[in-house]
Amino acid sequence: MIRSTDIRAKFSAFWKSRGHAAVPSSSLVPSDPSVLLTTAGMQQFKPYYTGEADPVRDFGSKSAASCQKSFRTSDIDEVGDERHLTFFEMLGNFSFGGYGKREAITYAYDFITAEMGLAISYVTVFEGSASVPRDEESAGIWKELKSDIDVRYEGMEDVFWGPTGSSGPCGPTTEIYVRNGAGEDIEIWNIVFNQFLYPGSREELLAGTADKELKPLAQFGVDTGMGLERLAMVVQKTKTVFETDLFAPLIAALPAELDERTKRVIADHARGSAFLLSDGVRPSNKGAGYVLRRLMRRVFAYMHLNALSNDIFEALMKIVIAEYGPEYQGLMKERDGIIDAMWAEWEQFARTLDRGVKAIAAMPSIDSKAAFDLYQSMGMTYEIVKELGGTKARGLNREDFDREFAKHQASSRAGAEKKFGGHGLILDTGELKAGNEEELKKVTRLHTATHLLQQALKDVLGGEVAQRGSDITVERTRFDFSFPRKVLPEELKKAEDIVNAKIAEDLPMTFVELPIEEAKKTGALYYFKEKYPERVKVYYAGRSLETAYSREFCGGPHVTHTGELKKFRIMKEEATSAGIRRIRATVE
Ligand code: SER
Question: What is the number of the ligand 1 atom nearest to the C-alpha of 42?
């Protein structure tokens, strides 16, 4: 049997021998603030497709290959069937102006047939649209490789990738289908040709949004993705992904009498939870933390309903750490943190779970509003309510529930904003804290300094830097951001010098208020964890919004000129968790 560790190794060796740099997986928490979690291997490479970053300078080649930790919340309702998962590993090869369709297709064909020993059932290619021609070239290359290959033409919905997030590279794809152990043809590999840049989301692209057009990219990009679990399922000839060696130890650790679907959901969610925790996510009511909370609480609920102890959950986490740790060191490093966080979340949920189960049982019917109340009051997540509610929850759907959720988040944010600058009394925005007028002045200066620092860090360290948190007291600003390694002393010095240069320029600091979509277009930085209202303020340091050195979504308060900061100093840099750095800094 080809083990999954062998598949990863073979894949990596295959691309190395074809001149690809082996790039490690990026964090599940992406630096791109427009996406919540990493959903594809190409995400960390977005700037290389657009030419904003230089792959040769960064990893010595125009081509790269990776095995990327990925997470898709869109599949959460499907988990429990043969092959849908939340967390998965994506094998991929990427080229940024290196090779074209011929090499991409030929290599993929060789890997699938010669290395994996699989037969291709059929391939799909793009049938063409009003703005993108039919992909005859790919069809021709497939036929040259295998004259009797079954080539099927499909449209935008199925064989046109991207963009991820609110804009990005995209283009037509060609997909490979192979037969699985259950005798069905499944898609195994998606080969994307990134030929365009689209200034909107995938939904906008499919809807043909006015004023938004595909623009050709200066260089031809290749982006491929192949789910490791599906490949293992086909290669190991199992009927489901849960019987592959990636999942078998987890399933085996669960009591045999549990029903199959429950076992699968628990195994998937425990694995996903361990990986999210290892990347520094902690359960919360927002963003990635909320996704994690839903996974963990669903496992707790199943354990509770089946009268099982959460020691089993802990055992599953430990299996994940042991099995995947050699490939993903972060799991080993964060081992204790992962287990502690699991029990801490249980501590919290245990107080209300039983009441929540009883409340659901007592309700005649449950709509989205009622479900949201259950979440608010007892922490019962959508998935649990849907499942326990059975037919009573027929009227409950995810869109309505999410709308209730968003409404609530917007109003609690508005509440936080009201506290801003209130009569110079105590300021507590969550981020800024001040006890009196004097302190307010100090934290305001530190607040502006934090904006300059974020931009300076991006200048020095690159686009991977994204805010992960910020806390300002009268003594210092504490800024957390994503970055995969220690920041070198000379890099800190550079960032510090940049901020001091911007202070010396005495730039005006002011804001414009814009509808959120327009504000995003200004290129202003924003914190992905935050839910923003319809209209937002964009604070900028510079003589105009366009030429500003720093632009950021923000509620204020700020100084009027950067010169007020006098002198900026970085005091300390350290790690807070995997992939997250923390800087403490002060102003004179
Ligand atoms: N980006 C494409 C996908 O995720 C190919 O890697 O399917």
Answer: 1
Tell me, using a 6 A CB cutoff, whether residue 224 lines ligand 1. Answer: yes
pLDDT at 499: 97
The secondary structure of residue 111, as a DSSP letter, is I
Q: State yes or no: cis peptide before 30, omega within 30 of 0.
A: no
Q: Which two tokens stand for residue 301?
A: 């609920």
Percentage of residues in the chain having pLDDT higher than 70: 96
Burial code of 437-462, b = ≥16 C-beta within 10 A, e = fewer?
A: eebbbbbbbbbbbbbbbbbbbbebbe
Q: What is the pLDDT of residues 1-54, one digit of tens each?
A: 899 999 999 999 999 999 999 999 999 998 876 788 999 999 999 999 999 999
Q: What confidence tier does 432 reach under pLDDT thresholds 50, 70, 90?
A: confident
> Which residue among 93, 174, 190, 222 has the greatest number of ligand 1 atoms within 8 angstroms of its CB, and so is best to mutate?
190
Helix (H, G, I), strand (E, B) or coil at 66: strand
Query: What are the structural domains, with CATH classification, of the chain?
Result: 4-242 (3.30.930.10), 252-411 (no CATH), 433-587 (3.30.980.10)
The confidence score (pLDDT) of residue 528 equals: 67
CB 488 within 8 A of CB 581: no
Instruction: Judge if the beta carbon of residue 190 lies within 6 A of ligand 1.
Output: yes
Alpha carbons 191 and 108: distance in angstroms, whole number: 8
422 has a pLDDT exceeding 60: no
**Cβ(89) – ligand 1 distance below 6 Å:** no
Average pLDDT, stretch 155-183?
92
Q: In the structure encoding, which two tokens stand for residue 272, read together?
A: 């996903």
- Flag whether pLDDT at 420 surpasses 60: no
Other Cβ atoms within 10 Å of 347 Cβ, number: 9
Is residue 361 classed exposed, middle or buried when 0-12, 13-18 and 19+ CB atoms within 10 A define those classes? exposed
